[in-house]
Automatic annotation (TrEMBL):
Names of required cofactors: Zn(2+)
Any GO BP: methylation
Protein name: 5-methyltetrahydropteroyltriglutamate--homocysteine methyltransferase
Organism annotation: Alkanindiges hydrocarboniclasticus
InterPro entries (alphabetical): Met_Synth_C/arc, Met_Synthase_cat, UROD/MetE-like_sf
Gene Ontology molecular function, alphabetical: 5-methyltetrahydropteroyltriglutamate-homocysteine S-methyltransferase activity; zinc ion binding
Region: Disordered, residue numbers: 1-22
Gene3D superfamilies tied to this protein: 3.20.20.210
Keywords: Metal-binding, Methyltransferase, Transferase, Zinc
Polar residues: compositionally biased ranges: 1-16
Domain Cobalamin-independent methionine synthase MetE C-terminal/archaeal: 10-335
SUPFAM superfamilies, sorted: UROD/MetE-like
Domain of life, source organism: Bacteria
């Protein structure tokens, strides 16, 4: 069963987070605080992981994840476990050139005290024989959510984080993770830095890994700061054009992208020809559940630029802010849409 995604055509997965149960965190809320503490919280997170896994399995998702049930925020939860960052010392910075946020301060050399997600990944591995994917923040997105009073160089801090991420990734691999994904929404914003050192630091983060590696680049959750920003991007979103040529040359195996309902011209995928592509065929910024045929038509369009054996149907981004019912419907639509295309390809 393990690694069966290498044999199955169009293996489905999600970009990351899934809704949390209401007994664990406030539902339909991004970055909601936990409702439990201490031992109860540990057990609650594990139970939520089981539920989330079960939902994915019922919906027929091929490459499963923890649904990010064990973390509050896709970047901050990782950084909380590191030395050198003071969470009580906060400064206001502009995140991804889009919105102001109060963020922690880098006050000294950053390092990892102990593994962050490895126990959680091991727990997920025990629950299923299916291939599993684990998400980590990417170096560039990490530095963009901090105030740096120590290195005073975005690039230097990114290289330090890349080393830490590499330690974590190697342990996740040893725990049985099949695909390690780095979330890099910042790749859609800081184009010069992406090409100067962003992709290089990402490659440092995956150095020596034998499992598959992915980078997820999206236009963010369906929150107001993001939807307002999207309105300024015009009728054609060509941001991917900036990072794709260098990513195509990079050692990253899989590129995870937002496609359905976005204004990304599909022909940009030509620029990463040869890479495996997680094609976002589910819009996470709307409660409208896609029909299987809508999913299929997005995948069909992507197939013009991605070889069938390299196409991984996926969601545009995480689904934490959605209701469980909507998320469930979207997962089922993703599976059913992929199945339509599998049948077409087998004819
Ligand atoms: Zn995303």
């Amino acid at each position: 069963m393990k690694n069966s995604f290498k044999n199955k055509l169009l293996p489905t997965s999600t970009a990351g987070s899934l809704p949390k149960p209401s007994w664990l965190a406030e539902p339909e809320t991004l970055w909601s605080p936990w409702k439990l503490q201490d031992e109860q919280l540990i057990e609650g997170k594990q139970d939520a992981l089981r539920v989330s896994l079960h939902e994915q399995q019922l919906a027929g998702i091929d490459i499963v994840s923890d649904g990010e049930q064990t973390r509050q925020h896709f970047v901050t939860t990782f950084i909380e476990h590191l030395n050198g960052v003071d969470f009580s010392k906060r400064e206001t910075v502009r995140i991804r050139n889009r919105y102001d946020a109060s963020v922690p301060t880098v006050v000294g050399a950053v390092s990892r005290q102990k593994p962050v997600f490895v126990e959680d990944a091991r727990f997920l591995r025990q629950q299923t024989d299916q291939p599993i994917k684990w998400a980590l923040p990417g170096p560039m997105t990490m530095i963009d959510t901090l105030y740096d009073a120590h290195y005073k160089s975005r690039e230097k801090l990114a290289w330090e984080f890349a080393k830490i991420l590499n330690q974590e990734a190697k342990e996740l691999e040893a725990a049985g993770v099949d695909i390690i994904q780095f979330d890099e929404p910042a790749f859609n914003v800081f184009f010069d830095e992406v090409n100067e050192w962003g992709i290089a630091t990402l490659e440092r983060a995956i150095e020596g890994l034998k499992c598959e590696t992915a980078v997820h680049i999206c236009y963010g959750y369906g929150i107001k700061a993001n939807t307002d920003w999207k309105k300024t991007l015009g009728s054609e979103w060509r941001q991917y054009e900036e990072a794709f040529p260098k990513l195509q040359q990079s050692s990253i195996d899989i590129i995870s992208l937002e496609c359905h309902n976005s204004h990304v011209p599909m022909d940009l995928l030509e620029l990463i020809r040869g890479k495996k592509v997680m094609v976002g065929a589910i819009d996470v910024a709307t409660n409208t559940i896609e029909t299987p045929e809508e999913v299929a038509s997005t995948l069909r369009a992507a197939l013009q630029f991605v070889d069938a054996d390299k196409l991984y149907p996926c969601t545009n981004c995480g689904m934490t802010p959605l209701s469980r019912e909507v998320a469930r419907g979207k997962l089922k639509a993703l599976s059913a849409g992929a199945e339509i295309i599998r049948k077409e390809l087998s004819r």
